[in-house]
Amino acid sequence: MSQSTSNGTSVKEAANRLQIALKSLEVNLNPLVIRVQKLEREAGDAQILTKNFESDRMRLAAKLDSAKAREKEYIEREKEFSTLAEETTREMDTVIATVMQALEDGIRGGNNGKG
Questions:
Q1: Are 14 and 7 in contact (CB under 8 A)?
Q2: pTM of the model
Q3: In angstroms, how far is CA 57 from the centroid of its own chain?
Q4: How confident is the model at residue 6 (pLDDT cuts 50, 70, 90)?
Q5: How many CA atoms lie within 13 A of 26 on its CB side?
Q6: How far apart are the C-alpha atoms of 84 and 91, rounded to whole Å?
Q7: For residues 115 and 111, what is the distance between their CA atoms, to the nearest angstrom?
């Protein structure tokens, strides 16, 4: 007593063919599932790399900002030193001129008294 379907096959045979088809589908899908899992892992790795890249970028940007601030400070110091050097040069020129004038006056005064 076998139950037949509309095409004349038994339910048991249909179930067996369905099992075989499902197994075949599973075998064929397995490489795809493995590939998807690998891609998901790679995507996770890429996200980690992206986070590391962003972290490095932020760290380097902070270092660059710090370097720019130091450069600005050095430029200001250089301006201050340049101004001080100019002032010192002017003062030294004044002192030298004063000393030379005193020497000339001393020489003239000394020649007038001896002459």
A1: no
A2: 0.45
A3: 3
A4: low
A5: 6
A6: 10
A7: 6
